[in-house]
Amino acid sequence: MFECGGIEVGINFSDKIADALSWMRFIKTWAMMARDGTTTMLPKSLQPEFVSATLFPPRPQSLIDIKTDVMKKGVISKIFVFNGFAIEALRAMYWDKENNIRPSRVETLSTFIISRYEAAVSKIPKPKKERVYTILHTVNLHPRMNPPLAENSFGNFLVYAGTQIPASSINGEASITSGLVKKIREGVKKMNKEYIRKLQMGEEDELSKIQQNSESIEKRGGEVIEFQVTSLSRFHFYEIDFGWGKPDWSSTGAWSFDKIIALFDTSDGDGIEAYVNLNEEDMAKFEADEMLRKFITPNYYSSRHNINSNL
């Protein structure tokens, strides 16, 4: 409870139980029951169906060693806000003119943020060695199943779509000419019905191949930089109403994981808040990047801009 009378509702959940979409539907149902005073049994359409273990029998975790999942000290989490005009300008910049394909907001911002990170950290000369980026995007399988999962399906139906590309193809302008956006899109497209069938059968997935390639690069003395990107855009957090009105602001807490990018809608639904996690040294270089600063909206949330700078 705040001095003004406002209320904050905080929720902590484990992805071992369900993905963000499943939890979002749980929260919406909870809010509906609180708002409408529902005390009777929910209609069948709103009752959760726990089908994940049936569709995807438990098996050993993927071979890929997702280093971004390692908690680290000294990681800073900051919000960089891109308004609608900035996003459209960036989408135009990454437009695939050859195939006349306009990139999605997620493809655009993940490419831009990672390219500006590489531009910022590579300004200081480093020993010459092979440097490769592994970019992992979370992909929602709900609509990709055959048939698509029912809205009340509850569980974790997320997979990672992986893209590997040399650092030289990411730095600044190179991210445009190298077709990084296209490579990211192609990686996500591989998460199709055939991929899901193989996943259900327990066959080796694409991430295993990426992991093997990463190990080979590191054995040769190279460096693999891993980024994980997740998007909660279009999840309609601002439509949730427990009976006190819709929220003024919806966000995530700070994470102590390095090199994670999480995308959320702004309260007006037009822009995107990019939560970027980096170590202190890299964050200082990244947020000082002139090209980045041209596209972000400074002081959008004033005191909310730095949600935790001393994890």
Unreliable spans? 63-69, 303-311
What string gives the helices and strands in order?
Answer: HHEHHEEHHHHEEEHHE
Beta-strand content:
15-25%
**What's the average pLDDT?**
84
Percent of residues in helices: 25-40%
Put simply, the count of helices is 10
Distance between the termini: 24 Å
CATH architecture, by name, is: 2-Layer Sandwich
What kind of assembly state do the chains in view correspond to?
single chain
The CATH topology: Chloramphenicol Acetyltransferase
CATH class: Alpha Beta
Instruction: Kindly state the number of beta strands.
Output: 7
**Tally of structural domains:** 1
Give the radius of gyration. 20 Å
Q: Tell me, what's the shape? A: globular
Largest sheet: 7 strands, mixed
Strand order of the largest sheet: 3-2-4-5-6-1-7
Characterise the protein shown here.
The chain has one domain (20-295): Chloramphenicol Acetyltransferase (2-Layer Sandwich). Helices cover 32% and strands 17% of the residues. It has ten helices and seven strands. It has helices spanning 20-36, 52-55, 84-93, 105-121, 174-177, 180-189, 193-201, 206-219, 280-287, 290-295, and strands spanning 75-82, 131-140, 158-166, 223-231, 260-265, 272-279, 306-308. A hairpin with a 6-residue loop joins strand 5 (260-265) and strand 6. This is Transferase.
